[in-house]
Predict the structure.
Amino acid sequence: MPEIDVLAVAKLPPFLLEPLRERFRVHERVHETDPAAFSALAPRIRGIAASGESKVSADLIARLPALQIVSVMGVGYDGVDVAAAKSHGAVVTHTPDVLNDDVADLAIALMIAVARRIPQADAHLRAGRWPDGPMPLARRMSGERLGLVGIGRIGQAIARRALAFGMPVAYTARNARPELPYTFAPSVRELAARSDFLVVITPGGAATRHLIDAEVLRALGPRGYLVNVARGSVVDEAALIEALQNGTIAGAALDVFDNEPQVPQALRQLDNVVLTPHIGSATRQTRQAMADLARANLEAVLGGRAPLTPVPECR
Ligand code: 8YV
Protein backbone atom coordinates (compact mmCIF):
# COMPACT_ATOMS: atom_id res chain seq x y z
CA MET A 1 0.00 0.00 0.00
CA PRO A 2 1.51 3.36 -0.97
CA GLU A 3 2.20 5.52 2.06
CA ILE A 4 2.45 9.03 0.77
CA ASP A 5 -0.73 11.14 0.67
CA VAL A 6 -1.40 13.40 -2.30
CA LEU A 7 -4.37 15.73 -2.70
CA ALA A 8 -5.79 16.08 -6.22
CA VAL A 9 -7.38 19.55 -6.35
CA ALA A 10 -8.74 19.04 -9.89
CA LYS A 11 -10.47 16.23 -11.72
CA LEU A 12 -7.38 14.50 -13.10
CA PRO A 13 -7.45 12.55 -16.36
CA PRO A 14 -7.19 8.75 -15.94
CA PHE A 15 -3.74 8.69 -17.54
CA LEU A 16 -2.47 10.81 -14.65
CA LEU A 17 -4.70 9.55 -11.85
CA GLU A 18 -4.09 5.82 -12.43
CA PRO A 19 -0.28 5.90 -12.41
CA LEU A 20 -0.35 8.27 -9.43
CA ARG A 21 -2.53 5.78 -7.54
CA GLU A 22 0.13 3.09 -8.00
CA ARG A 23 2.59 5.20 -6.06
CA PHE A 24 0.59 7.43 -3.76
CA ARG A 25 -2.64 7.51 -1.76
CA VAL A 26 -4.53 10.00 -3.89
CA HIS A 27 -7.40 11.91 -2.31
CA GLU A 28 -9.62 13.47 -4.94
CA ARG A 29 -10.89 16.93 -4.05
CA VAL A 30 -11.73 15.92 -0.46
CA HIS A 31 -11.01 19.51 0.58
CA GLU A 32 -14.16 20.49 -1.35
CA THR A 33 -16.35 17.43 -0.93
CA ASP A 34 -15.70 16.26 2.64
CA PRO A 35 -14.32 18.96 4.97
CA ALA A 36 -14.33 16.66 8.01
CA ALA A 37 -12.32 13.96 6.25
CA PHE A 38 -10.03 16.65 4.89
CA SER A 39 -9.30 18.06 8.36
CA ALA A 40 -8.22 14.63 9.52
CA LEU A 41 -6.15 14.07 6.42
CA ALA A 42 -4.55 17.51 5.99
CA PRO A 43 -1.51 16.97 8.26
CA ARG A 44 -0.45 13.97 6.14
CA ILE A 45 -0.73 15.57 2.67
CA ARG A 46 2.73 15.92 1.13
CA GLY A 47 1.83 16.69 -2.46
CA ILE A 48 -0.84 18.49 -4.44
CA ALA A 49 -1.71 17.48 -8.01
CA ALA A 50 -3.36 20.33 -9.89
CA SER A 51 -4.39 21.35 -13.39
CA GLY A 52 -3.50 24.60 -15.14
CA GLU A 53 -6.77 26.16 -14.00
CA SER A 54 -6.66 24.98 -10.37
CA LYS A 55 -6.80 27.36 -7.46
CA VAL A 56 -4.25 26.57 -4.76
CA SER A 57 -4.68 29.37 -2.24
CA ALA A 58 -2.52 30.49 0.67
CA ASP A 59 -5.32 29.26 2.99
CA LEU A 60 -5.21 25.75 1.55
CA ILE A 61 -1.41 25.66 1.70
CA ALA A 62 -1.46 26.84 5.33
CA ARG A 63 -3.60 23.83 6.25
CA LEU A 64 -1.02 21.37 4.90
CA PRO A 65 2.03 21.46 7.21
CA ALA A 66 3.77 18.54 5.47
CA LEU A 67 3.28 19.91 1.94
CA GLN A 68 6.42 19.61 -0.21
CA ILE A 69 5.18 20.09 -3.76
CA VAL A 70 2.35 21.56 -5.83
CA SER A 71 2.59 19.80 -9.20
CA VAL A 72 0.60 21.56 -11.92
CA MET A 73 -0.30 19.66 -15.08
CA GLY A 74 -0.19 22.74 -17.27
CA VAL A 75 2.24 25.48 -18.17
CA GLY A 76 0.11 28.19 -16.54
CA TYR A 77 0.03 28.31 -12.75
CA ASP A 78 -1.68 31.64 -12.13
CA GLY A 79 -4.15 29.98 -9.74
CA VAL A 80 -1.36 28.88 -7.40
CA ASP A 81 -0.17 31.20 -4.65
CA VAL A 82 3.51 30.59 -5.39
CA ALA A 83 4.76 33.00 -2.73
CA ALA A 84 2.74 31.15 -0.07
CA ALA A 85 4.04 27.78 -1.28
CA LYS A 86 7.63 29.01 -1.24
CA SER A 87 7.45 30.49 2.23
CA HIS A 88 5.91 27.20 3.34
CA GLY A 89 8.94 25.37 1.95
CA ALA A 90 7.04 23.73 -0.92
CA VAL A 91 8.10 23.82 -4.55
CA VAL A 92 5.68 24.55 -7.42
CA THR A 93 6.24 22.67 -10.67
CA HIS A 94 4.55 22.93 -14.07
CA THR A 95 4.77 21.33 -17.51
CA PRO A 96 6.41 23.75 -19.95
CA ASP A 97 7.60 22.99 -23.49
CA VAL A 98 5.70 19.74 -24.11
CA LEU A 99 2.61 21.74 -25.15
CA ASN A 100 4.27 24.48 -27.23
CA ASP A 101 3.45 22.95 -30.61
CA ASP A 102 -0.18 22.18 -29.84
CA VAL A 103 -0.96 25.64 -28.49
CA ALA A 104 0.87 27.29 -31.40
CA ASP A 105 -1.00 25.08 -33.87
CA LEU A 106 -4.31 26.11 -32.32
CA ALA A 107 -3.40 29.81 -32.41
CA ILE A 108 -2.72 29.58 -36.14
CA ALA A 109 -5.87 27.51 -36.67
CA LEU A 110 -7.97 30.13 -34.85
CA MET A 111 -6.43 32.95 -36.90
CA ILE A 112 -7.32 31.18 -40.14
CA ALA A 113 -10.74 30.12 -38.82
CA VAL A 114 -11.79 33.65 -37.85
CA ALA A 115 -10.42 35.35 -40.97
CA ARG A 116 -11.67 32.72 -43.45
CA ARG A 117 -14.88 32.15 -41.47
CA ILE A 118 -14.43 28.39 -41.49
CA PRO A 119 -17.09 27.58 -38.83
CA GLN A 120 -19.59 29.77 -40.71
CA ALA A 121 -18.67 28.13 -44.03
CA ASP A 122 -19.18 24.69 -42.49
CA ALA A 123 -22.56 25.79 -41.12
CA HIS A 124 -23.52 27.30 -44.52
CA LEU A 125 -22.91 24.00 -46.27
CA ARG A 126 -24.53 21.81 -43.60
CA ALA A 127 -27.66 23.99 -43.58
CA GLY A 128 -28.08 23.37 -47.32
CA ARG A 129 -27.50 27.01 -48.21
CA TRP A 130 -24.78 26.38 -50.86
CA PRO A 131 -27.23 25.94 -53.76
CA ASP A 132 -28.71 29.36 -52.90
CA GLY A 133 -25.39 31.10 -53.44
CA PRO A 134 -21.80 31.37 -52.30
CA MET A 135 -20.54 32.57 -48.94
CA PRO A 136 -19.66 36.26 -48.67
CA LEU A 137 -15.96 36.74 -49.34
CA ALA A 138 -13.65 36.46 -46.33
CA ARG A 139 -10.27 37.97 -45.32
CA ARG A 140 -6.81 36.70 -46.26
CA MET A 141 -4.43 35.85 -43.43
CA SER A 142 -1.19 35.24 -45.33
CA GLY A 143 0.96 38.35 -45.45
CA GLU A 144 -1.05 40.15 -42.75
CA ARG A 145 0.72 41.61 -39.72
CA LEU A 146 0.97 39.50 -36.55
CA GLY A 147 1.35 41.06 -33.12
CA LEU A 148 2.23 38.74 -30.25
CA VAL A 149 1.43 39.78 -26.70
CA GLY A 150 4.14 37.65 -25.07
CA ILE A 151 7.17 36.07 -26.71
CA GLY A 152 7.88 33.12 -24.44
CA ARG A 153 8.26 29.58 -25.68
CA ILE A 154 4.74 29.34 -27.12
CA GLY A 155 4.87 32.86 -28.56
CA GLN A 156 8.04 31.95 -30.41
CA ALA A 157 6.45 28.76 -31.74
CA ILE A 158 3.55 30.85 -33.10
CA ALA A 159 5.99 33.36 -34.64
CA ARG A 160 7.92 30.61 -36.46
CA ARG A 161 4.68 29.29 -37.95
CA ALA A 162 3.54 32.79 -38.93
CA LEU A 163 6.75 33.33 -40.90
CA ALA A 164 5.72 30.43 -43.15
CA PHE A 165 2.53 32.39 -43.89
CA GLY A 166 4.61 35.41 -44.93
CA MET A 167 3.43 37.41 -41.93
CA PRO A 168 5.61 40.19 -40.52
CA VAL A 169 5.91 39.50 -36.77
CA ALA A 170 6.05 42.04 -33.96
CA TYR A 171 5.70 41.46 -30.22
CA THR A 172 5.51 43.15 -26.89
CA ALA A 173 6.93 41.85 -23.64
CA ARG A 174 8.36 43.26 -20.43
CA ASN A 175 11.79 43.36 -22.07
CA ALA A 176 12.88 43.54 -25.72
CA ARG A 177 14.53 40.36 -27.00
CA PRO A 178 17.10 41.68 -29.50
CA GLU A 179 18.30 38.14 -30.26
CA LEU A 180 14.92 37.36 -31.88
CA PRO A 181 14.24 38.33 -35.51
CA TYR A 182 10.97 40.12 -34.67
CA THR A 183 10.06 43.78 -34.11
CA PHE A 184 9.63 44.92 -30.51
CA ALA A 185 6.73 47.24 -29.63
CA PRO A 186 7.10 49.02 -26.28
CA SER A 187 3.41 48.75 -25.32
CA VAL A 188 0.38 46.58 -26.07
CA ARG A 189 -1.41 49.61 -27.47
CA GLU A 190 1.40 50.34 -29.93
CA LEU A 191 1.56 46.67 -30.88
CA ALA A 192 -2.20 46.59 -31.49
CA ALA A 193 -2.00 49.69 -33.70
CA ARG A 194 0.47 47.92 -35.98
CA SER A 195 -1.25 44.49 -36.06
CA ASP A 196 -3.94 42.81 -38.13
CA PHE A 197 -3.93 39.79 -35.81
CA LEU A 198 -3.22 40.43 -32.13
CA VAL A 199 -2.50 37.10 -30.44
CA VAL A 200 -2.43 36.89 -26.65
CA ILE A 201 0.07 34.36 -25.30
CA THR A 202 1.23 35.78 -21.99
CA PRO A 203 0.80 34.28 -18.51
CA GLY A 204 -2.39 35.09 -16.58
CA GLY A 205 -2.51 36.48 -13.04
CA ALA A 206 -2.58 39.93 -11.47
CA ALA A 207 0.27 41.36 -13.58
CA THR A 208 -1.58 40.88 -16.88
CA ARG A 209 -5.19 41.28 -15.78
CA HIS A 210 -7.20 43.19 -18.42
CA LEU A 211 -4.05 44.08 -20.35
CA ILE A 212 -6.30 43.98 -23.42
CA ASP A 213 -8.79 46.74 -22.64
CA ALA A 214 -11.06 49.08 -24.62
CA GLU A 215 -8.14 51.33 -25.58
CA VAL A 216 -6.09 48.43 -26.98
CA LEU A 217 -9.12 47.19 -28.93
CA ARG A 218 -9.62 50.66 -30.41
CA ALA A 219 -5.97 50.66 -31.46
CA LEU A 220 -6.40 47.24 -33.09
CA GLY A 221 -9.19 48.76 -35.15
CA PRO A 222 -11.93 47.61 -37.54
CA ARG A 223 -9.60 45.42 -39.64
CA GLY A 224 -8.05 43.76 -36.60
CA TYR A 225 -8.68 40.35 -35.07
CA LEU A 226 -8.01 39.39 -31.45
CA VAL A 227 -6.94 35.81 -30.70
CA ASN A 228 -6.57 34.59 -27.10
CA VAL A 229 -4.92 31.25 -26.30
CA ALA A 230 -3.55 32.35 -22.91
CA ARG A 231 -5.93 33.13 -20.05
CA GLY A 232 -9.35 34.79 -20.09
CA SER A 233 -8.22 37.19 -17.37
CA VAL A 234 -5.82 38.97 -19.75
CA VAL A 235 -8.75 40.36 -21.77
CA ASP A 236 -11.45 42.70 -20.45
CA GLU A 237 -14.30 40.50 -21.68
CA ALA A 238 -17.00 43.19 -21.35
CA ALA A 239 -14.91 45.64 -23.40
CA LEU A 240 -14.27 42.91 -25.98
CA ILE A 241 -17.98 42.12 -26.36
CA GLU A 242 -18.70 45.81 -26.88
CA ALA A 243 -15.89 46.13 -29.45
CA LEU A 244 -17.22 43.09 -31.33
CA GLN A 245 -20.80 44.36 -31.26
CA ASN A 246 -19.81 47.84 -32.48
CA GLY A 247 -17.37 46.79 -35.17
CA THR A 248 -14.52 48.45 -33.27
CA ILE A 249 -12.54 45.31 -34.23
CA ALA A 250 -13.21 42.84 -37.06
CA GLY A 251 -13.52 39.72 -34.94
CA ALA A 252 -12.09 37.48 -32.25
CA ALA A 253 -11.09 33.87 -31.82
CA LEU A 254 -11.01 32.74 -28.21
CA ASP A 255 -9.92 29.52 -26.54
CA VAL A 256 -10.02 30.90 -23.01
CA PHE A 257 -12.59 32.88 -21.02
CA ASP A 258 -12.97 34.79 -17.78
CA ASN A 259 -15.28 32.37 -16.00
CA GLU A 260 -14.73 28.95 -17.62
CA PRO A 261 -16.65 26.84 -18.43
CA GLN A 262 -19.27 29.63 -18.54
CA VAL A 263 -19.12 31.78 -21.68
CA PRO A 264 -21.33 34.90 -21.84
CA GLN A 265 -24.41 34.56 -24.00
CA ALA A 266 -23.54 37.90 -25.64
CA LEU A 267 -20.30 36.38 -26.94
CA ARG A 268 -21.96 33.17 -28.12
CA GLN A 269 -24.50 35.13 -30.13
CA LEU A 270 -21.95 37.04 -32.19
CA ASP A 271 -21.20 36.04 -35.76
CA ASN A 272 -17.69 37.52 -35.89
CA VAL A 273 -16.20 35.18 -33.30
CA VAL A 274 -14.80 31.65 -33.20
CA LEU A 275 -15.00 30.03 -29.78
CA THR A 276 -13.28 26.86 -28.54
CA PRO A 277 -13.50 25.35 -25.02
CA HIS A 278 -9.89 25.71 -23.78
CA ILE A 279 -8.43 23.03 -26.06
CA GLY A 280 -4.98 24.55 -26.65
CA SER A 281 -3.08 21.54 -25.30
CA ALA A 282 -5.90 19.03 -25.70
CA THR A 283 -4.38 16.32 -27.89
CA ARG A 284 -3.78 12.80 -26.64
CA GLN A 285 -0.05 13.05 -27.23
CA THR A 286 0.43 16.35 -25.46
CA ARG A 287 -1.84 15.66 -22.51
CA GLN A 288 -0.02 12.34 -22.00
CA ALA A 289 3.33 14.16 -22.03
CA MET A 290 2.00 16.76 -19.59
CA ALA A 291 0.66 14.02 -17.29
CA ASP A 292 3.98 12.16 -17.41
CA LEU A 293 5.89 15.30 -16.48
CA ALA A 294 3.46 16.25 -13.69
CA ARG A 295 3.81 12.72 -12.25
CA ALA A 296 7.61 12.73 -12.62
CA ASN A 297 7.79 15.99 -10.66
CA LEU A 298 5.71 14.52 -7.83
CA GLU A 299 7.76 11.33 -7.76
CA ALA A 300 11.04 13.23 -7.76
CA VAL A 301 10.21 15.61 -4.93
CA LEU A 302 8.35 13.08 -2.79
CA GLY A 303 11.21 10.65 -3.41
CA GLY A 304 13.70 13.15 -2.03
CA ARG A 305 15.05 14.32 -5.37
CA ALA A 306 15.11 17.68 -7.15
CA PRO A 307 12.05 18.70 -9.19
CA LEU A 308 12.37 18.39 -12.96
CA THR A 309 10.52 21.51 -14.02
CA PRO A 310 10.02 23.98 -11.16
CA VAL A 311 8.31 27.27 -12.05
CA PRO A 312 10.78 30.15 -12.55
CA GLU A 313 10.08 31.62 -9.08
CA CYS A 314 11.13 28.32 -7.47
CA ARG A 315 14.36 27.79 -9.39
C1 8YV B 1 -4.76 23.03 -19.54
C2 8YV B 1 -3.42 25.13 -19.70
O1 8YV B 1 -6.01 23.50 -19.83
O2 8YV B 1 -1.18 24.51 -19.66
C3 8YV B 1 -2.01 25.35 -19.33
O3 8YV B 1 -1.70 26.38 -18.74
O4 8YV B 1 -4.21 26.02 -19.67
C4 8YV B 1 -3.81 23.80 -20.15
O5 8YV B 1 -2.96 23.21 -21.01
C5 8YV B 1 -4.92 22.12 -18.50
O6 8YV B 1 -4.85 22.73 -17.26
C6 8YV B 1 -4.46 20.76 -18.47
O7 8YV B 1 -4.50 20.26 -17.18
The two ends are 33 Å apart (CA to CA). DSSP finds 13 helices and twelve strands in the chain. The pocket of 2-keto-D-gluconic acid is lined by residues 51-53, 73-76, 99, 278, 280-281 (CB under 6 Å).
